[in-house]
Amino acid sequence: STLFSNKKKKGRRYVRLSCCCGYPISIFFIVVNEFCERFSYYGMRAVLVLYFRYFLLWDDDLATSIYHAFVALCYLTPILGAIIADSWLGKFKTIIYLSIVYAIGQVTMAISTIHDITDANRDGTPDNFTFHIALSMLGLILIALGTGGIKPCVAAFGGDQFQEHQSRQLNTFFSVFYLCINAGSLLSTLITPVLRAQECGIHTQQQCYPLAFGVPAVLMVISLVVFIAGSGMYVKTDPEGNIMWSVCKCIGFAIKNRFRHRSSSYPKREHWMDWANEKYDKLLIAQIKMVLKVLFLYIPLPMFWTLFDQKGSRWTLQATTMSGDFVSILISTVNPILILTLVPIMDRLIFPLIQKCGLNFSPLKRMTVGMLFAAMAFVSAALVQIEIDKTLPNFPSSSESQLKVVNTYSTTLNVTISPNEHLLIDADYVTFDHQDITVSLNTNPVITKAFSLIKGGRQTLIIPSDPTVMFVNGYTADLNITNLDSIEPSATTNYTLVNQGKRDFVLRHGEQWCEFSRKFGFGASYTFLIPSTVFSDDCESITEVEDMKPNSVHMALQIPQYFLITTGEVMFSVTGLQFSYSQAPKNMKSVLQAGWLCTNAVGNIIVLIVAELGKLPKQWAEYLLFASLLVAVSIIFSIMAYFYTYIDPAEIEAQVRKEQGLEPEEMEKETIEMEEKDEDQKNEQGVKQTKI
């Protein structure tokens, strides 16, 4: 390729390059940058709620709230990024600076997941959770600033690399750009859960969150390096002012002027924006009116995103209470796979068939149907949750206690607990509404002992082979990896988190040792009782107690809800953007993009509020609540859509120009193009242009 011009013109700094495929070389750096950045973002987000739940040990509601607060911030910061790029730094510098912030945030997040940093006693659990929480929150804030700030800049910056005669290549670029977004999402949501399932650590082996978050951090650094590497080849535009700021000032003036003239003595105007006529151009006011019509339709839309973004929070937590090996990996990738499949099917098959049948399936009707599909997805999720609840253990309330008795004595025993309540040996947990109990065993002589149960907890009473009793806390203990060869006599260990499947254990005491293996089910909890004869019978006498049964509802049952929510996304999101862009002037598309992103942010804030304030006792009830709200909102939206009149922005602009005595936009554009062409010929005289 050959460089043949490098100059500034009308706010643009040109560095024109051509290559063998007819595309500027610079766009290849941008495409690779986008793939790596999307891999970094979606990979981190795929395991984020699990990190909150199982590393920081937050409950489901807090984990959900923080997750959606982060997502909401990611959809609010693009407005800030657009203003910085258009009014101050320009797209190139904005992408560079905010990508650095982004990379620092990812690295900070990865460091916060290293449990060994504060694990002084080397028991596998951080000793200072405040440190890890503070570091992870700092990382998430930096990530939100970075990913949101560059979101409105990268695609537009890629479009700046093309000349006006390269419209075909420009369309192909945006298709490839969208493909890279989905490819990055697909691969990252497939890979990072697998990385998390590995075991790693300096002193103790735990689920490998540092690797799951570290790989996205590395990809973000690569993304930044790749983008900087193409610096000398980019077409870089200077900041030319942000249209959003102009729109806000015009609207503000109209409201203020209307308030000043609120008296009935002043004549009414056709539209409240007409009160800005004294200061602002009529064309700008007409354009803002068109935008406001679309933004008014956006008011009900956040409820769709309220349901949609719970794929990464509530539905992920739901999957942790289900069974499935390979399917668990597939579930995390269902959405991007279905997106890549359903978009062309809808565009090329479903929508044309509906049109051929003579049905008026307008964009707003498609969006309404998309909402109903999302509501059906949550009804499906509620039905799955009801099935899950049937298999979950019945945990005690905060005022209750639960006890289970395990007998390892050589003969059958009867256990009586005051007041004269008989317990079945080796049965399930029994619930008590009082703390203090007295346990009696029908041994010879009778053994009686008083105990105080822990409220809100599960405990196991183990009757060993010698006449003593020992308590093991089976519910409230921390989940820790414990070295079996360091257990003291008559001592117990905390629960250790292990992967499902077959696991081997080795017990050692001096020169004596034995090995045994067990197969663990997903979601189950076990206690192993080690007798004094363990080495003489080669570990055969070890008794296994199943405290909680394995999950039995299969993850494949989630596939229908993912299919329904993705169908809703295709009909709602893709159609919504197309409709918005068709109903707004060219120079106002960034305003609509900002409004669209705000609906997503508000939707996530709604989830946060419901999770923290709703506190519904059953998760399936919350799913049905969201589904009902979306059905109600879709009815309101359909009524608003019924009264909406479709417009042609170009025609309205031409009419306003004609009323103002201005030349039509096409003539103005042609005049500017002729002037630029003459300038090009003058500046490029004598320069040989080579095309390869």
Automatic annotation (TrEMBL):
Could you tell me one molecular function GO term of this UniProt entry?
symporter activity
Annotated GO CC locations: apical plasma membrane
Residue ranges under compositional bias (Basic and acidic residues)? 669-685
- TM region(s), chain numbering: 14-33, 39-57, 69-89, 95-117, 129-150, 170-196, 208-230, 290-308, 328-346, 367-386, 591-611, 623-647
Q: How does it sit in the membrane?
A: Multi-pass membrane protein
Q: Where is this region: Disordered?
A: 658-692
Annotated InterPro entries: MFS_trans_sf (IPR036259), POT_fam (IPR000109), PTR2_symporter_CS (IPR018456)
The Gene Ontology biological process annotation of the record reads: oligopeptide transport; protein transport
What span is annotated as the signal peptide, if there is one? none
* Alphabetic keyword roster: Cell membrane, Glycoprotein, Membrane, Peptide transport, Protein transport, Symport, Transmembrane, Transmembrane helix, Transport
Family matches, as Pfam families: PTR2
Homology family: Belongs to the major facilitator superfamily. Proton-dependent oligopeptide transporter (POT/PTR) (TC 2.A.17) family.
Function per UniProt: Electrogenic proton-coupled amino-acid transporter that transports oligopeptides of 2 to 4 amino acids with a preference for dipeptides. Transports neutral and monovalently charged peptides with a proton to peptide stoichiometry of 1:1 or 2:1. Primarily responsible for the absorption of dietary di- and tripeptides from the small intestinal lumen. Mediates transepithelial transport of muramyl and N-formylated bacterial dipeptides contributing to recognition of pathogenic bacteria by the mucosal immune system.
Give the protein name, as stated in the record: Solute carrier family 15 member 1
Q: Which organism is it from?
A: Cyprinus carpio (Common carp)
